[in-house]
Structures are given as C-alpha cells and as structure tokens.
C-alpha cells in the first residue's frame, strides 16, 4: 500500500488506499493463479474418484470367487452376489459395474467385470473404464487409443 501525500491549503494530509493499477495487478495475479489451479484441482478430483471403481471391482471379484466356491460357476447377476441392483452402482454414483463371460466365453468358467464411468466422471478421459477378470488381471477399457488398430497401450498409473 502506497502512502501518498497531497498539499491542500498549506497542510499535508495523507491519502491512504490503493490505486486502480495496484488493484488491477492483484486481480491479474489471482486470475493467473486460478487459471492454473482450477484445472489441476479438477483433474485431481477425477483421479481420486478412480479408487471408487477400483474398490468396487475388487469387491465384485471377491464376491465372484465366493459365489464360485458355492455354485461352481460365476454369475453375471450382481444381485446374486449380494448387491442391491444389477448392474451395481458405486457408492457415490460415479461408476456402474457389471460382469460378463471372460476369455473362455462361458460365465461358468471365467468373468470380466467392468466399471463404466457415469455422470461427471465421464470427464475422466485419461484412464477410461476399469476392468478385472477371474484371473485377477486388472485392466482398462475405453481409454484414448483403445479403438485404434493396433490398440494403443493403456495409460500408466491408472490402477
């Protein structure tokens, strides 16, 4: 803050305050910081929501193994695994998960569970959707380049 003095009728009175230029410099600095910080914050939010998909898929895989131990088959019906709906929606609603037959093409011997992005999480285009299979393999689907011929390698650091 600059202190300016002005001579008025022979006495000096201090004028205290900010000039328009000083205020505009501060506004410009705040705008630059916001332009950098807000996208970084939003990207971090999307990244932290990925754990919701991962934990849901690992829960499904564990329940599938228990179901297989009792019934000698896997299932595509999430309600048979104890979930309230088929497909099951994650705790905060950012992912929807379901299972299909795995590599063998027979749900009795293998499964692949996929957590598909929903709502605001569809903005997470870096990792795409998450998968886990009956062998415990973790993977990604619908990530950038997955539909190329040949498919691009999945992005690192998602699982």
Helical residue percent band: 25-40%
Overall geometry: elongated
User: Whole-number average pLDDT?
Assistant: 89
The separation of the N and C termini measures 50 Å
Beta percentage is 15-25%
Low-confidence stretches: none
Q: Any idea what the radius of gyration is?
A: 28 Å
Number of helices in the DSSP assignment: 1
Order of strands, widest sheet:
3-4-5-6-7
Please provide the count of β strands. Answer: 7
Q: Structurally, how many domains make up the residues?
A: 1
What can be said about the biggest beta sheet? 5 strands, antiparallel
List SSEs in N-to-C order: EEHEEEEE
- What structural class is derived from the secondary structure elements? alpha+beta
Model description:
With 159 residues, the protein is an alpha+beta fold. It has one domain (18-141). 33% of the residues lie in helices and 23% in strands. The chain has one helix and seven strands. It has one helix at residues 20-71; strands at 3-8, 11-16, 88-89, 95-101, 111-117, 129-133, 138-141. The chain has a five-stranded antiparallel β-sheet with strand order 3-4-5-6-7, with helices on one face. The protein has a two-stranded antiparallel ribbon with strand order 1-2. A hairpin with a 2-residue loop joins strand 1 (3-8) and strand 2 (11-16). The mean pLDDT is 89. This is Prepilin-type N-terminal cleavage/methylation domain-containing protein. Keywords: Membrane, Methylation, Transmembrane, Transmembrane helix.
